[in-house]
Amino acid sequence: MPEWNDDQILEAIRTPGNEEAAFNQLVANYQERLYWHIRKILVDHDDTDDVLQNTFIKVWRSLPDFRGDSELYTWLYRIATNEALTFLKKKKKQAFAPWVEVEHKMSESLESDPWFNGDEIQLRLQQAIIKLPEKQRIVFNMRYFDNIKYEEMASILNTSVGALKASYHHAVKKIEEMLGDD
Amino acid sequence: MGNKRKIPDLQHESLKKQPFSVPDGYFESFSDRLHARIREEEQTTPVRRITIFTRPWVAMAAAILSIALISYPILRFALPDNRPSSPSDVAWMDEFYLMEDDFYLVEYLESEEEEMNDQEAFASQAMDYLAINDVEMILLLE
Questions:
Q1: Which of A132, B35, B56, B58 is most open to solvent, judged by the fewest CB atoms within 10 Å of its CB?
Q2: Which residues of A touch B128 (CB under 8 A)?
Q3: B14 CA to chain A: closest CA distance, Å?
Q4: How many CA within 13 A on the CB side of residue B119?
């Protein structure tokens, strides 16, 4: 099956009887990108798998109401980000622990994670990223690893370019400080 | 005070490489697993939807009922009443204490549990609504 672009997917979604085929194409086009976006927020593969499924289930249920006010790509990233943040909040609540403890566990589990292949410096970088506040973590990951433009990030997170640049700047400073400390 | 290490250059391309991996065949099988889960969820009973409009009335009804349950026995014993208790009063009070001791506690615990689930479902729905309807995501991050 030839790959459809976003416009073709949206057109198919609005054509009765084509919704499922359009959704399948949407999943095929976006599963990897959304997976890596969520994975960088949650770190753990199994958690990411759960949240990615939740994301697409939300997308499937909300597709009939998608008005196309924003780009499909922006809309999907926004739902994925929201699902990942909701998952983190639930995790903190279930652990009955402050964020520092959850963060400490995430950081420790990274060392024994069979699906982490980074070297020592990459491990230290990931551990530093985990310690960032959620907002800075998301902004840093999107900019640093995915090289997403500030303008695109602004539409995904519905905030200003200036605020995103400030968040990224603070994140870089904190990471450099953390990597410099023993 | 920690010793200072050499700070890795964040602009170094090797640091920007993806350090994570996935199990073999993960993406190839993802779509099938997703569809299986969607089918499974569609077969189960739909989750009861809670709307913003009904919740205040539920809360108000619960508050009135609670006040009535608490104030009746207090008023009944605090206010002077020289009438001898009728058999029906005694029967009602026995029933009340039984309810307070046993049924009420069980019901309360069950309703608390249900309320917690309702709250979580409500919060989740609110978050979804905000995300899907372009409400500023940064607000969700606070």
A1: B56
A2: 58, 62, 79, 82
A3: 9
A4: 8
pLDDT grade, residue B129 (50/70/90)?
Answer: low
Q: CB contacts < 8 Å between A and B, how many?
A: 120
Torsion (CA) B142, A180, A112, A146 in degrees, nearest 10: 60
CA pseudo-torsion sign A121, A122, A123, A126: positive
pLDDT per residue as tens digits for the range A36-86: 999 999 999 999 999 999 999 999 999 888 877 888 999 999 999 999 999
ipTM > 0.95 (yes/no): no
- Beta-bridge partners for A116: B20
Helical residues (DSSP H) of chain B, grouped into ranges? 26-43, 55-78, 87-98, 104-132, 137-141
The reply to whether residue A53 touches residue B15, judged by beta carbons under 8 angstroms, is no
Exposure on the CB side of residue A61, measured as CA atoms within 13 A = 15
